[in-house]
Structures are given as C-alpha cells and as structure tokens.
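Quick start: what a row looks like.
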Amino acid sequence: MTISHTESYYAASAVGMADYSQISGSENCDVCVVGGGFTGISTALNLAENGFDVVLLEANRIGWGASGRNGGQMGSGLNWSQAELEKEFGDESAHALWNLCELAKQEVIGRIDKHRIPCDFKHGVMAAAFTRKAEMKFREVESHLRKKYNHHSVRIVEREEIGELLGTDKYWAGMLDTSSGHLHPLNYAIGIAGAATQANVRIYEASPVNSYKREAGGYTVTTANGGVVSARIVVFACNAYIGNVSRKISRTIMPFVSCIVATEPLTENVARSINREDIAVFDSKFCLDYYRLSSDRRLLFGGVEKYIPVDSGNIARSVRPRILHLYPDLKNVKIDFAWGGKIAVTRNRLPSVGRIEGDIYYAQGFSGHGVALTNIVGKILAEKISGTAEQFDQFASIPHKSFPGGHYLRWPAHILTMLSLSMIDRINSRLGGIR
C-alpha cells in the first residue's frame, strides 16, 4: 500500500489501522458503495447487517478524507435553527429532522459501545457567542429547544462562567449541550470499518472509481486500476471528493479546505486553565474557529478556510494567530501537527441526500455537521435500499440548487462571498464583538 493518510495528529495516534487490498479483476454484489468515509462505511455496515452482499471501494485509505481529518465534534441538529426549519418546512418536518439528528448521536455512541471503538469519546460541546448578537440568538435557540423539543441537555452559560470554563474573555456567553460530544474521528472510522469487515463487507483501498454505467439488471462500476464491480445498486458516498465521476451529484456541493493544528502536549494545569471540563468548542463566526483537547492534552484547533491546497507550514502560520487571540499565554507552545482537508457545503448548508438514475443513491454536503449525520444517513440509506423510505424521504425532500457559474465559474463567486463574510468576522474581532 503506497497511499498514506495526511500527516495529521489523528494518523499519528491511530489505533488498529488495517491495510485493505486494491481491487483486481471483477466482483459481483448486491450493492457497491463508493467512498470509505463515515457515510460509506456506515451504509455498507448497515446493509451487511440487513443481509446484503456489499463491496466498498475507497480511492485512498479508509477515513482518508474529511472523516479522518475533521475536528471530531458531534453536535446537535443542523446548520439551521429549529425555528428556521419550522418556518421553511413546517413544524412536522422540522420535528422529524430534529428527531433524526438526535438518532444520529445515538447511532455514533451506540456503535462506539457495540464495537468497543477506542476513539476517546467525551460528552459536551459549547457554542461560544463571539458577538452580542450571537449571544441573543443562542438564548432564543436554547429557550426554543427546551420548550418545544424537550431538549433539556442544553443550557446558557453566562459570560463569567464561560470565561472560567474556557480561560478567555472573548465570548459574551455560550450554549452548552451535554448530549453532544467529541471523539478521535480517524479511530472511529477505523473501528466501524473493522465492524463492516466482520459483517462480511469486502473493502478495497487504493481503488478510485473513474466511471460507472447502467447495464441489464444493474450497474458496472470501473476503477482506475481496471477493477470492475457489477452491482444491482450503487451508493456514492464521496462527498467533497466526488470529482467528475458524476456531475449530476457534484453540482450541488462546493468543496473547500478546512485547516487544523495540534499543539505539543500541554501540562495538566495549562490544559485545565483553557478547557476546565474537557469539552469541544465552536464559535459563532461565519468562518468559525473550533477546538478541543486531545486525550494526551494537545490543543486541537481549526477553522481557517482555504480554497487552494496549502502546506503544513502555511497552515500553522494561519491558525496560530487565531489561537493567540483567545490564549496569548500559549505564544511559546509548539505546533506539532498541521493539516487540511476538503469538506463539502451546499448552498443552503443542509445535507444533500437523494436518488438518481433508478438505483443510484448519494449523500453529501454535510456542511460541517458530518460526524453524526453521516452515520444516521448511512443507516437511512440502508433502510431505503431495504424497502423502508420514510426517514430517507425526510432528507431527500430538502430542495437543493446548484452553485451559480457552472462547474468551473462557481469557484470565483463563492470565494468572493466567503472573503466578504471573513471580513465581517475580522471587523467584529477588532470591535470586540459588540455587534
């Protein structure tokens, strides 16, 4: 195996990583799943548990993409607030989507327990209000979740307490959800892939798909190295790495690079001073910061968004000022790892799940909420293929538009939009978040 994971903290601390062979020759199966991240593995695992014969094709390594590189935060809900979903889709659909998001967290925790996955899961995610406007928004959200959704694991953390919990005076308040949590994402991917192989899923790495075509009775999927899979059903779970395999699927998502660093291990006193309860944190900026502590007390800090590949030195230089804005006392702390990876967003920042061309299914565009949602979507896809469509239809009914500008010109328009929103974040930072 010549392909390796990016040089991240997660890869350096991975447990139980297996080498799967490259596909050679031909395979026949019920379902061919393309993509070895959370979505693909979850789909394959659930299908196998339901009695389907499954082949999974991964272009690189299991968890090589966003699933093995992300911030490891498993939050509640979607990018939209429940009030926004109610206004757009109605109360019934909003409640159904909320219930699915709650099941998503249970799915992850249940898999960790069932398969004894050593991924350092811990409860607690804090949404930190960077501006006064965000503080008021969090108060509305918290009240709405408690009163209308009976979600009592969420509470408002006032300014003095959040300062004590996180060791910074930069936030107006926070919203803490103890039903959410954080984990080592690559170890989780490795763990559910191991469970999938035990359920008789045939996993192939270093097997990038370059085409598929419809045949009598199903589809033929061809890989770049000449492997061929004949299947009745195909699931594309490639997300930001779909490339040109299917323009019909890729046109509703926009990939960009999110960057993360891992510091050297902090002393116990320093770690406690910046994160007393060992929770995960994300802030209210559009180009947000997100951070947490690793099991060996490193600060894992991410959020810088890039639109072209960058080297680890540039990532470290970009992220360090954001750390020091919150924690100037960490100025002499070394950064041991710096990495980036593509994630995919949709125009409305809601997941894109659907079916095309008969029995081609896809799921993508989780827009920063992928740790939990990918796992429940994988289960829902398996249910749909097994004949139960109700939960699949909840996600599939969300309308999505293509990014303007077509395949090539959509990039400049999106970059200009992101740059303008980043400028607003910087202005708010200079003003001390008074807006």
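That is the whole record. The chain is about 40% helix and 25% strand. The domain at 9-69+187-252+348-402 is CATH 3.50.50.60 (FAD/NAD(P)-binding domain).
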